[in-house]
Each structure stands twice: as structure tokens, then as C-alpha cells.
TrEMBL record:
Its cofactor is pyridoxal 5'-phosphate. It comes from Chelydra serpentina (Snapping turtle). This is Glutamate decarboxylase 1. The keyword Transferase does not apply. Gene3D superfamilies: 3.90.1150.170, Type I PLP-dependent aspartate aminotransferase-like (Major domain). GO terms for biological process: gamma-aminobutyric acid biosynthetic process.
Length: 246
């Protein structure tokens, strides 16, 4: 379907503007539905792999170039198709990941709804329905872990890394509540013991900047003090001391 590329704020009759809007959004929905069908097709590829330089150079009309002028709606539709075409089908039956996989259709519908509403979760005045929904969900989660309404509170986070950051901040405040009024100067040197394979907690430590980390004292980080592929015992000891006491 050929679409006329007209900005929504163009000086045209309102009816014509809405016709173009409907046409564009219906095209987008069709692209998404076709993608979902391919995602559930076990015979389709999980990924149509291309190297980064190929994506940057452009493939069959697909372009990642940021131009000074707005793109026409036709090009936006092409980019929508190709973005899905060259991406990983995370809902594919043969897609396996340690964090997530699969496609929840009801959740997808919720994403469409929340994106369309485009509501900021500031106050009840701005987001009455979503604020009440949040309270109900938190209450249910409190019940699931055995907490009552009085001693429980909560906040939603976008992922595991920031959840680890929240946990470090909560633990610090629990042990040193005076930091809220006196700042970080009220803190002694504190340590968090983690595995040598630490990932997200380590990032939380780097962001906070004041929590000291103690790693596995039997093994320094890979590549540290390496000379010819070997590490001396004195070097290993100095590294362990540095990471424990810095």
C-alpha cells in the first residue's frame, strides 16, 4: 500500500489527517502481526545474521542513518519491517536465553496499551488507574512473601542490575541510617563479599562509588599482574590486599 507522507501537524483538514494516521497505524499493526506469526514458526530462522558493518551500510532500503529532515512514513514502515527482520526472534521456539525467552501475548497487549497511553507514574492526578494498579500488585506480592500491609512497601524496577543497586542502597541505609542526614562522610570503610563471577552487584558498586568489594582472595582478576601468562605469589598477594582494602 502506497502512503502519502504528510506530517500530522500539516495544515490539512482534520479528517484527512486522521485517515493518514489510521492508515499508518494499521500498516504498523500488520507488520507486528506478521512478525508474531513468523516468531512462532519453528521452521523460520531465530536470527537473520548480518555483521555490524552490513547493517550500518544499509540492506535493501534499511538505513540507520540519522538525517536532518524527518523520514517519510513509507521509509518508517520499511525500517519497522527490517528492524524486526534483522533482529533476534526472542519468542522463537528455538530461542534460549538465561534471562528471558518466549512471547506472552497478553503481556504484549499490555505493552501496546501502556505505550499508547504514554502515562508517567508521577501522581494519582496524572495516572489514577496505573497508580491504583501498582498498589494492588504490590499488595499481592507482599502477601505472596508473607508480609503484612503495615511493614511492607515496594517499588518496581526495570531489571536485575538496578535491583542490585537498590539492594545495596537499602542495606547501607539499614546499617547506617545517619547517611541520610550526614552524607557519605559518615560511613566507615564497608565491604561487600561477592563471588569472583560477580556481574550486576559489581556494577552497583561501581555506580555507588563508596562500597568496597572483597573478591575471592585465592584468585585475582584474570589478566592482572600477568607476565608471560604466569603470576607470582607476591603479585597475587598484593592484588588480594589491594582489592580487600582499597
Amino acid at each position: 500500500m502506497v502512503m502519502e507522507s504528510v506530517p500530522l501537524r500539516a495544515e490539512r483538514p482534520r479528517k484527512r489527517v486522521w485517515e493518514l494516521t489510521d492508515q499508518f497505524l494499521l500498516e504498523v499493526v500488520e507488520i507486528l502481526l506478521n512478525y508474531i506469526k513468523k516468531t512462532y514458526d519453528g521452521k523460520s530462522k531465530v536470527l537473520d545474521f548480518h555483521h555490524p558493518h552490513q547493517l550500518l551500510e544499509g540492506l535493501e532500503g534499511f538505513s540507520l542513518e540519522l538525517r536532518d529532515q524527518p523520514e517519510p512514513l513509507e521509509q518508517i514502515l520499511v525500517d519497522c519491517r527490517d528492524t524486526l527482520k534483522y533482529g533476534v526472534k526472542t519468542g522463537h521456539p528455538r530461542y534460549f536465553n538465561q534471562l528471558s525467552s518466549g512471547l506472552d501475548i497478553v503481556g504484549l497487549a499490555g505493552e501496546w496499551l501502556s505505550a499508547t497511553a504514554n502515562t508517567n507514574m508521577f501522581t494519582y492526578e496524572i495516572a489514577p488507574v496505573f497508580v491504583v494498579m501498582e498498589e494492588i500488585l504490590l499488595k499481592k506480592m507482599h502477601e505472596m512473601v508473607g508480609w503484612g500491609e503495615i511493614e511492607a512497601d515496594g517499588i518496581f524496577s526495570p531489571g536485575g542490575t538496578i535491583s542490585n543497586l537498590y539492594s545495596v542502597l537499602v542495606a547501607r541505609y539499614k546499617r547506617f541510617p545517619e547517611i541520610k542526614t550526614k552524607g557519605m562522610t559518615a560511613l566507615p570503610h564497608i565491604a561487600l563479599f561477592v563471588s569472583e563471577h560477580v556481574n550486576a552487584p559489581g556494577l552497583a558498586l561501581e555506580i555507588t562509588g563508596y562500597v568496597y568489594i572483597a573478591i575471592n582472595t585465592l584468585r585475582p582478576p584474570a589478566g592482572s599482574c600477568a607476565v608471560g601468562g604466569s603470576q607470582s605469589s607476591s603479585c597475587r598477594s598484593s592484588l588480594n590486599l589491594k582489592f580487600l582494602l582499597r
